[in-house]
Design brief:
Low-confidence stretches: 174-196
Strand content: 5-15%
Helix content: 40-55%
Shape: elongated
Structural class: alpha+beta
Distance between the termini: 41 Å
Strand order of the largest sheet: 1-3-2
Length: 196
């Protein structure tokens, strides 16, 4: 196969797979080395970016790639899709996502302790939307279920990984202007995640 055919094969597999896929699996399917496949993926990603194509190639972590629609064209794509079922996320859902993303894996009781309200229905809705998933059980009394964000969360918010989350106010290195009234609140997380 020529290089153009290899790149075409990568496009076909990524398009058909529709989820993040490991480089090793792509390399195995094409009978190439991981290094050769990685190089082809990077060339394809650069080509999409330079030509401002409708597709973008996203890298998740060190070894997973996914073909997606470029966010710039999102509004036009929405016009032809039935989006009535995809209601926007509520402020409560954004709060829960922030608590999970910045502290994962976490239990439902931890989320409720941070927010100060029952969060079971919000957690259930986020599970249904595929933005969070169960991550086993925590080694705590009662062995509560732990939750973590998913690759879908990363894709929806345009992140390559959790390291791309906006820094919390404490982590940003900003000087503390005024001492708070002693209350801890998840509000900074929520404000940070509303950039969507």
């Amino acid at each position: 196969m020529t290089e153009a055919q290899h790149i075409g094969a990568l496009e076909a597999m990524l398009f058909a797979h529709a989820e993040p896929v490991e480089v090793e699996r792509l390399a195995d399917a094409m009978r190439l080395s991981v290094a050769e496949t990685e190089s082809l993926l990077e060339r394809l990603q650069t080509r999409y970016d330079e030509e401002e194509r409708g597709f973008a190639l996203l890298r998740f972590g060190p070894d997973r790639w996914q073909m997606t629609t470029r966010p710039y064209y999102g509004e036009m794509v929405k016009r032809i899709l039935d989006t009535r079922r995809n209601a926007p996320l509520s402020p409560a859902a954004l709060e829960v996502l922030a608590v999970i993303a910045y502290n994962q894996p976490v239990s439902r009781s931890f989320i409720e302790q941070v927010r100060g309200v029952d969060s079971s229905s919000t957690v259930a809705k986020l599970l249904e939307k595929g933005l969070i998933e169960e991550a086993g059980r925590l080694d705590l009394p009662g062995k509560p279920v732990a939750f973590q964000v998913t690759d879908t969360f990363l894709r929806v918010f345009g992140l390559r990984g959790l390291q791309d989350l906006p820094p919390l106010h404490d982590e940003a290195g900003a000087p503390e202007e005024e001492p708070s009234s002693g209350e801890e609140s998840p509000a900074p997380d929520t404000e940070q995640l509303e950039w969507k």
